[in-house]
């Protein structure tokens, strides 16, 4: 019966079409079909264009090599021809076309973002996208080969120092930094030599300038839900996000590069309190937050005193006895020698930072993992006080750290259910914890009664399944904290003794150091045993480990050269020749850390350095941890995971020349540098003059003060200071 009615309906519709007025029915029908097709096609194309494949291993990548460039002029000479705060180059901007916050004076085709193959994600990639990714990767490798000899001639020249002395080389003889980040493993060159031009044909991309020299930048403020605390890849600021969660469950970046400027706090921003006074007080207006005001009323470890937030030493989450808490831990396990045997610590969750502050006095470098669920933004308070802090989610993806690098991981009442989701979170802690490293789990006295309950029973079963040895479990009467200390095994033998092989051992092709957009694995990575593997032996005691070069490091000469180079550069130029007042510098970031030489040269200063190893560079981050420093992986084509106004100084050594043709909009990296830097903060950029000239123009358009420019041959340095200007 239903089929009969359906047939009659279609017949009636056909008769209506044949009628004179049926033309309107036809038109309506065609329009509806067209709209459906457009919607469906735009959905597919947008998902494909925004698809981003991340790299798991850095061993098969050669450093991006810049193409031939015309002779450049001195940076300081070019800057004289531009008015302060305004950028105009080339012809007049009457013919300019506004695109993404700036004006182009000529039409150019939009280049697609460089995508890199990921062996564990190919099954999720559409076939067409995979083929495009592979072709792009082969093309870039061939270009790197063909340009290698030419770039070596350019890059082999001596570098320059800001005081005019003879330049020293980055990483054993190359001031350009090209050689210092070339390859930690000889496999890079071998794999690149296997790629020939016949594999991709005769077509090759022509590399253009990093920054468009004919662009005028017109800035605007970001109009986001989080306002002056905007974190692009963490805050859920889309149309749907305004109705749902305030922050993403995982890191998700905007589809288009961020080209807007984050506004200042509502009441403005004043120069922060200098270190070490900032440990006990900070300016309230600099970290003002609606939920922070309510939080202060409920907690006694932070007080509002006039224009400041103060942090009484006798009021902490450890009942004012954080030093006794540290001594109690060392008494439980004497091998935990704070500042000697234990140097690098990860503190999960951000509260009063008293644990971090107390360990600093013991020469222990502790980085706090401020979870993205912290809507009070205590991580920003910690950064304003001068404590190392990183904002990240702890859900289903790996943290941006290599494997086996943290001496100790600490979790004090952090509220994380480690046994949930098959123990994924604890397995991630096992991945980044050094063999024989310590996992310290503590809870308040009022929660100790739950120790025999389901949570701790599950936790005990999980730690036993991954062969963690519980060294001690006691209650500290002074701090009223119940403390459990676990130790990761030092060899694989104990894994074979398990009755149940659950979780199983990871496959041999699973790279434990792959961490950028890589999902957590429900498996145990084998513990390094060979001398050529990092993590096979515990590092030397601090501070000896800073100058120790382990056997597994393949390029010891380059690492030593990198350390010597930056030690000389910092002493001769950075500390005295750039006009930087280092008494007001505390939070520092090295945006292109190679072997950590820049951070090592500042170890005697009252600063801490976030060493960033770009994901497209050779993986040198394990060595940075080995020498008693810390850092993370990051792709500078995306915003960094931290709050605005977090750093006093950014250091970028050949960042832009290494990123050439990788990012959709390189100018967005400059916008990100503006977001990361505090008003009054500094950026020091060393790069090719052809890059520094347009970079200087962009900074001037942002009303940054250009404090120094220096150039010799094709290399140069630019030093600029951020102002309070906002559009």
Any descriptors?
globular, seven-stranded mixed sheet, alpha/beta, 727 residues, 28% helix
Principal-axes shape call:
globular
Distance between the termini: 69 Å
Mean pLDDT across all residues, rounded? 77
Strand order of the largest sheet: 9-8-7-10-11-13-12
Question: Count of helical segments?
Answer: 18
Biased composition (Acidic residues): 140-171
Family: Belongs to the methyltransferase superfamily.
Protein name: Methyltransferase
Organism: Cardamine amara subsp. amara
Task: Characterize the structure shown.
The protein is α/β, with parallel strands linked by helices and 727 residues long. It is 28% helix and 16% strand. It has helices at residues 2-18, 22-49, 75-79, 127-155, 187-193, 290-298, 322-332, 354-360, 378-385, 424-432, 454-465, 493-496, 556-574, 597-601, 621-626, 655-658, 667-676, 689-701; strands at 97-99, 102-104, 215-217, 281-283, 303-305, 308-310, 344-348, 365-371, 389-392, 406-412, 433-444, 469-476, 481-487, 587-590, 608-614, 631-634, 647-653, 677-688, 705-712, 715-721. Strands 9-8-7-10-11-13-12 form a seven-stranded mixed sheet. Strands 16-15-14-17-18-20-19 form a seven-stranded mixed sheet. Strands 1-2-3 form a three-stranded antiparallel sheet, with no helix packed on it. Helix 1 (2-18) crosses helix 2. It is globular. The model is unreliable at 43-206 (pLDDT under 50). InterPro entries: Put_SAM_MeTrfase, SAM-dependent_MTases_sf. It is an enzyme of class 2 (transferase).
């Amino acid at each position: 019966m239903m089929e009969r009615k359906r047939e009659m309906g279609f017949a009636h519709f056909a008769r209506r079409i044949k009628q004179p007025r049926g033309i309107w029915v036809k038109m309506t029908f065609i329009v509806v079909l067209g709209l459906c097709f457009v919607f469906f096609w735009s959905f597919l194309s947008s998902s494909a264009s925004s698809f981003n494949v991340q790299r798991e291993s850095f061993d098969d990548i050669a450093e991006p090599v810049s193409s031939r460039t015309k002779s450049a002029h001195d940076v300081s000479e070019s800057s004289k021809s531009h008015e302060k705060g305004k950028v105009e180059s080339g012809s007049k901007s009457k013919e300019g076309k506004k695109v993404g916050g700036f004006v182009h004076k000529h039409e150019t085709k939009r280049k697609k973002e460089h995508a890199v193959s990921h062996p564990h994600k190919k099954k999720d990639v559409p076939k067409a996208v995979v083929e495009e990714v592979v072709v792009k990767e082969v093309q870039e490798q061939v270009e790197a080969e063909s340009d290698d000899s030419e770039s070596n001639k350019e890059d082999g020249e001596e570098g320059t120092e800001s005081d005019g002395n003879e330049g020293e080389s980055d990483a054993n003889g190359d001031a350009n930094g090209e050689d210092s980040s070339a390859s930690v493993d000889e496999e890079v060159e071998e794999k690149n030599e296997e790629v020939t031009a016949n594999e991709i044909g005769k077509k090759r991309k022509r590399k253009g300038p990093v920054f468009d020299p004919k662009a005028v930048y017109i800035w605007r403020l970001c109009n986001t839900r989080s306002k002056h605390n905007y974190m692009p890849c963490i805050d859920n600021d889309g149309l749907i996000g305004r109705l749902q969660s305030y922050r993403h469950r995982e890191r998700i970046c905007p589809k288009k590069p961020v080209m807007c400027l984050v506004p200042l706090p509502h009441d403005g921003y004043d120069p922060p309190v200098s270190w070490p006074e900032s440990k006990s007080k900070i300016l309230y207006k600099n970290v003002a937050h609606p939920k922070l005001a309510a939080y202060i009323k409920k907690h006694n470890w932070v007080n509002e005193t006039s224009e400041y937030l103060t942090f009484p030493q006798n009021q902490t989450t450890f009942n004012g006895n954080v030093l006794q808490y540290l001594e109690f831990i060392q008494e439980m396990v004497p091998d935990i020698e704070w500042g000697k045997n234990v140097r690098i610590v990860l503190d999960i969750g951000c509260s009063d930072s008293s644990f971090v502050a107390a360990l600093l006095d013991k020469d222990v470098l502790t980085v706090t993992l401020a979870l993205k669920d912290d809507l009070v933004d205590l991580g920003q308070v910690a950064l304003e006080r001068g404590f190392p802090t990183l904002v990240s989610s702890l859900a289903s993806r790996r943290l941006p750290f290599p494997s086996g690098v943290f001496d100790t991981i600490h979790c004090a009442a952090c509220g994380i259910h480690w046994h949930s989701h098959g123990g994924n979170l604890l397995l991630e802690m096992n991945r980044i914890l050094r063999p024989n490293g310590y996992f310290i789990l503590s809870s308040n006295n009022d929660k100790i009664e739950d120790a025999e309950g389901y949570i701790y029973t599950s936790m005990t079963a999980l730690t036993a399944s991954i062969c963690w040895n519980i060294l001690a479990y006691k209650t500290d009467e002074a701090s009223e904290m119940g403390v459990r200390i676990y130790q990761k095994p030092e060899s694989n033998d104990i894994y074979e003794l398990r009755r149940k092989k659950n979780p199983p051992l990871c496959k041999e092709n699973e790279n434990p150091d792959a961490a950028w957009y890589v999902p957590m694995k429900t498996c145990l990575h084998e513990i390094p045993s060979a001398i050529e593997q990092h993590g096979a032996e515990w590092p030397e005691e601090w501070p000896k480990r800073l100058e120790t070069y382990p056997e597994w490091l393949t390029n010891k000469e380059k690492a030593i050269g990198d350390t010597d180079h930056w030690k000389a550069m910092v002493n001769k130029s950075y500390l005295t020749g750039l006009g930087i007042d280092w008494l007001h510098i505390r939070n520092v970031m090295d945006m292109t850390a190679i072997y950590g030489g820049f951070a090592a040269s500042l170890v005697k200063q009252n600063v801490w350095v976030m060493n960033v190893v770009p994901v497209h560079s050779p993986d040198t981050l394990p060595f940075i941890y080995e020498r008693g420093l810390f850092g993370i992986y990051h792709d500078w084509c995306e915003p960094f995971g931290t709050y605005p106004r977090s750093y006093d100084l950014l250091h970028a050594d050949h960042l832009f020349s290494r990123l050439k043709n990788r990012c959709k909009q390189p100018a967005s990296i400059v916008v990100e540098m503006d977001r990361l830097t505090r008003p009054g903060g500094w950026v020091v950029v060393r790069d090719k003059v052809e890059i520094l000239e347009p970079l200087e123009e962009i900074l001037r358009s942002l009303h940054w003060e250009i404090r120094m420019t220096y150039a010799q041959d094709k290399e140069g340095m630019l030093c600029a200071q951020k102002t309070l200007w906002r559009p």
